[in-house]
Design a protein that fits this description.
With 252 residues, the protein is α/β, with parallel strands linked by helices. It is built from 10 helices and 10 strands. The protein has helices at 42-49, 89-93, 95-99, 104-111, 114-117, 133-146, 163-180, 191-197, 219-222, 231-251, and strands at 4-13, 16-26, 31-36, 57-62, 65-66, 75-77, 151-155, 183-188, 200-205, 210-216. Helix 8 (191-197) packs across helix 10 (231-251). The longest helix has 21 residues, at 231-251.
Length: 252
């Protein structure tokens, strides 16, 4: 049984259907990308999975338990890091634990050893304005991890970063996610990013959004020195672009 199952979900706002009959799954320890054009319903799908939006039909299961329209079952990191500017990095990352009732002392004790692991050692007493974009994202990842849910939803987590910072944090991200064994669904518009970071990719297309293709990425294809120029990488990219092009042509 998959860790997370989204079964036949359709949802929208008022009278507009945004996603229709979406079925996806996430296995323990996987990183799965959700790729699609703007307006295809990626964020709406995440709002359903997180329990923020009740679907018109379908269900969301976590370890076999129905969590449809129930919040607090998965962690959810939005596009912006949303670090509170008036709190230190330590105070920001322990926020999920204190909200859940842990004392600040206990929360700090749990978080402190992870600062080195997440590349944040020395930033504990600093404020977000003093950190680079990449470091702020690391802090946001740590905060998401400390929410202590088996599944993390990441909505375009790298979109605000410049190309050089993004390339650096991609490598760190893959390594840290494998190390902490977190199961992740992440949204992206970037095909290269989806291929580099995912075990599998779901392509969301049409309006309302439907899953039009699932692409399985073989580890040996994406662990190469010159990844972006490798035959395997280019083959995945052609396959994905072909699927998206068919959707775009249909919309026209």
């Amino acid at each position: 049984m998959a860790l997370l199952e989204v079964k036949g979900v359709s949802a929208g706002y008022e009278k507009e259907l945004v996603i229709e009959d979406v079925t996806i799954n996430l296995n323990k320890g996987e990183i799965v990308g959700i790729l699609g054009l703007s307006g295809s319903g990626k964020t709406t799908l995440f709002n359903v999975i997180s329990g923020l939006l009740k679907p018109d039909c379908g269900e969301v299961l976590l370890n076999g338990e129905d969590i449809t329209a129930k919040t607090g079952k998965v962690s959810y990191m939005l596009q912006k890091d949303l670090l509170l500017p008036y709190k230190t990095i330590m105070s920001n990352v322990i926020l999920p634990m204190t909200i859940k009732g842990k004392s600040r002392k206990e929360a700090k004790k749990l978080a402190a050893p992870l600062f080195k692991e997440f590349g944040l050692e020395g930033t504990e007493k600093m404020y977000p304005a003093l950190l680079s974009g990449g470091m702020r994202q690391r802090a946001a990842f740590l905060r998401t991890y400390l929410y202590n849910c088996p599944v993390a939803l990441l909505d375009e987590p790298f979109s605000a970063l410049d190309a050089l910072t993004k390339a650096s944090i991609h490598e760190w991200y893959v390594n840290i996610m494998r190390e902490i064994d977190l199961s992740v669904l992440f949204i992206t518009h970037d095909i290269d990013e989806a291929i580099k970071l995912s075990d599998r990719i779901y392509i969301l297309g049409d309006k309302p959004g439907k899953i039009i293709k699932e692409v399985i990425i073989k580890p040996e294809d994406v662990r190469k020195k010159d990844l972006l120029l490798s035959d395997g990488f280019l083959a995945y990219k052609r396959e994905i672009m072909s699927a998206i092009s068919l959707v775009s042509a249909k919309d026209e």
